[in-house]
Amino acid sequence: MKFCSLFLKNLRKLLLNIDMFGSQINLQIKKENEYHTIFGMLMSLGILTLIYYSFLSLVIEMIERKSPNVLQNIQYQAFPDEYKLEQDSFIFYIVLSDSYGIPIVQKPDQLVYTATMQACSRITDSDNQIHNSCNNFTLKSCATVQINTQIQEQLNISKALLGSSVCLDPQDLNSISLSLQGTPQSPIFKSLQFKIEKCNNVTSGGKCASPEYIDKKLTQGYLGFFVSDSVLNQQKANNPFSLVSKLISSSISSYQYKSMTVWMRKSTLYNKENFFYYFENNKEYKTLLFERQSEQVFNIQQPQFIDITLYLDDREAEYYRTYNNILDILGQMGGLLELMLFLVGTIVKPFNKLSCDLFLASEIFYFEKSHGQQKIVPQVQGLGQSEGLVNSSQLAQLKKYFKLKAQQIKLYIYQYLFTCGPDRQLIQQSIESIYNQIDIIYIINKLIEIDKLKKILLNEDQQILFNFIHKPKIQLGAREKMKESINQNQYDLNKLSFEEEIIQAFNSYTMIKESTHKKYQKINQSILSLLDKDVKMIFETNDNQKAQKQTSILQIQQVSSFNDLSLQENRVDI
């Protein structure tokens, strides 16, 4: 039954601790609102150091733009907008190889195949009339055309491979604006189509190789279609899309016809920089990305054995890149601070609470040592000489004694943290006593008792005059010189040094002990009986030494007087 009651009590206390809206009752300790420990100070410095280091790192990353935030969004576009193909961002070349993978090298007068490109557009007007138009371009050997050297180095194109490849002459590319737009279902559709067929002497002007050689090379082989692609580098501040080469390979044969479709996806990166929400810098970067490919094979034999159609995909990729600004960094620091306070607080708060409780217990109570430990006995000589003063050696001993006595309870912290400590019960009782003493209800009850005591000790007239006693006065001036006083002759005990405090205590002890006033005799005896026994022993030792010294002085004076009298008698006799 007792166990159940204790369990329910602890459970109720645990559930009440969940309340996040409780009111805290603050009591000043050492004239401060909070009690601080070195352990808490070190942990606070560690948290502040971590916050400062994290804040500085994030600010440096913000300035150097190293850690962007990138969001990707894929949108469906039924009618993709036009994308213009420029020479410095779009390049392609085609290479054919035989069955052994060896590139087919074409000489100017011994061509094996010919390749053409068509830039076609199909426009459907409001009357559903379709208008088709195509511009034809013959692809030439890459060895004979001038390719942008920067693009060649950027794509890492081999010169040996270019010698056996065909590509579009940059002069032809400059003569017309190439673009991709829409899909086959769009009213406006623009695409590129590449056609590869056997060399025909009629169309090539008799520059073809022998039919046997052509059949030998094209009966079975491979196609390599290199087209420019892009890779997004999120860390790159300017021009985040890097141009790369995408290889699309497929098998070929002059005995079959193959149709290949390549989808290219439009990609746009929206870059937003607003470090302080006032200086915004918005940029857009657009490029084409390879999306997918498909093939269709027809078992028919014709001069054209493969064609490649290039057009836009109906899905567009959008990237939104932002950087942290000052407010974002401050928000992250606030979250990190809350997390660190929560984690560290689970360790520091109980320790600080325990340390505060032990400090209060040491200041309020005196603890007897248990388990046969020796008692602390101050080895202090008399407090004063004939003048009633205290020398430096005695003061040092007294300070050491009172300091050890005040810190006596703190020696049990290690034992308290472990539930099997031998003196845990003693400390627990002292802490409960402290809570009872500083409880607000207890204080109110004490004030009521004082009010009742006033009515008992004072008559009606005295009570009326008691209400007109002037309030404590706060003197104007520097803050450190402010003090409360009931009258001008009140002595400020808080400003007494340790030496003055000891001397004043000893003088008060002497006055009370020697007092013969009958009215206060009972109170004086109560005070002397409640006095700390160690302090009382110090005062009694000093008092005995002082009495012995006075007795010795009297004896010396008596001896001196006797000697003087004998001397005078001797003089008379002479």
Overall description:
The protein has 16 helices and 17 strands. It is an alpha+beta fold and 574 residues long. The strands form 4 sheets. Strands 1, 4, 5, 9, 12, 13, 14 and 15 form an 8-stranded mixed β-sheet that branches. A 5-stranded antiparallel β-sheet has the order 6-7-3-10-11. It has a domain at 72-264 and 290-316. Helix content is 41%, strand content 24%. Residues 370-390, 478-494 and 562-574 have low confidence and may be disordered.
Number of strands: 17
Compute the separation of the termini in Å: 104 Å
Q: Unreliable segments (pLDDT under 50, ≥5 consecutive)?
A: 370-390, 478-494, 562-574
- The number of helical segments is 16
What is the helix content? 40-55%
Q: Quick one: biggest sheet?
A: 8 strands, mixed
Tell me the quaternary state.
Answer: single chain
What number is the mean pLDDT? 74
Task: Tell me the strand percentage band.
Answer: 15-25%
Class from secondary-structure proportions: alpha+beta
Keywords: Membrane, Transmembrane, Transmembrane helix
Break the fold down into its secondary structure elements and pairings:
Layout: H1 2-16, H2 38-64, E1 69-76, E2 83-84, E3 92-98, E4 113-124, E5 130-138, E6 140-141, H3 149-155, H4 159-163, E7 165-167, H5 170-175, E8 179-180, E9 188-198, H6 201-204, H7 211-218, E10 221-232, E11 241-252, E12 257-274, E13 280-298, E14 304-312, E15 315-322, H8 326-364, H9 392-406, H10 413-417, H11 424-437, H12 440-457, H13 460-466, E16 473-474, E17 484-485, H14 498-514, H15 521-530, H16 533-573
Helix pairs in contact: 2-8, 8-11
